[in-house]
Write a structure and sequence with these properties.
Shape: flat
Pfam families: TetR_C_1 (PF02909)
Distance between the termini: 47 Å
Radius of gyration: 21 Å
Number of domains: 2
Strand content: under 5%
Keywords: DNA-binding, Transcription, Transcription regulation
Largest sheet: none
Number of helices: 11
Number of strands: 0
Helix content: 55-70%
Structural class: mainly alpha
Order of helices and strands: HHHHHHHHHHH
InterPro entries: Homeodomain-like_sf, HTH_TetR, Repressor_TetR_C, Tet_transcr_reg_TetR-rel_C_sf
Protein name: HTH tetR-type domain-containing protein
Length: about 200
């Protein structure tokens, strides 16, 4: 599946991979959507629900780091997650624990679910942007590297100032998830407490 991507996923391809007949696969899943949901449930079964920590912020931070690191190993699953129509029920305990931590930190339930959603979107966006698939190079450089190196400093003076930090030859900037999550959590908690 990971070699050809999700578009190539069919009951027949799974059966071929398992050296079985398509009908035998149908004994376990009714259709492609059921297969995708089962695959997603296999991934979300590993979400960190029970975590160490003496306070809600520590547990929430640990849980979000764990979510990030876990999903980084299953980038293909992000396509299923972002399709919007599949919800693995075994992910509910993770969401419930995170929402509970926000409530314990003094946020109203509506602010807690909003804050959880913001953290979830940070994780998804960071993984999609900072953990790309295989690099495509032409003439030894990626299109990204060429575009950044050829940028006109007169047109984009501020962007040019950070090119050395970006190091276009290395792909996207290094993962800043821990730093960004810390900033986001403190902002959400401050805003949520202020609105109560």
């Amino acid at each position: 599946m990971t070699e050809n991507g999700l578009p190539a996923l069919t009951i027949r391809s799974v059966a071929t991979r398992l050296d079985a007949s398509p009908m035998s696969v149908y004994n376990y899943v009714q259709n492609r959507q059921a297969l995708e949901l089962a695959m997603l449930e296999a991934v979300t079964a590993g979400l960190p629900v029970e975590v160490e920590g003496t306070d809600a912020l520590t547990r929430l931070t640990t849980r979000m780091h764990g979510l990030h690191d876990h999903l980084a190993d299953y980038r293909w699953a992000l396509q299923l997650v972002t399709s919007g129509d599949l919800v693995p029920t075994n992910s509910f305990p993770f969401a419930n624990a995170c929402i509970g931590e926000f409530i314990e930190l003094g946020l109203a339930p509506a602010d807690a679910i909003y804050s959880y959603g913001a953290c979830w979107h940070l994780v998804l966006g960071e993984l999609l942007d900072r953990h790309p698939g295989p690099t495509r190079k032409h003439d030894g450089r990626t299109q990204r590297e060429k575009a950044l190196r050829d940028m006109d400093p007169d047109d984009h003076p501020h962007y040019v100032q950070v090119i050395d930090v970006l190091d276009p030859s290395e792909g996207p900037p290094p993962c800043q998830f821990i730093r960004t999550l810390d900033i986001l959590l403190h902002g959400l908690i401050s805003e949520g407490r202020a609105s109560n």
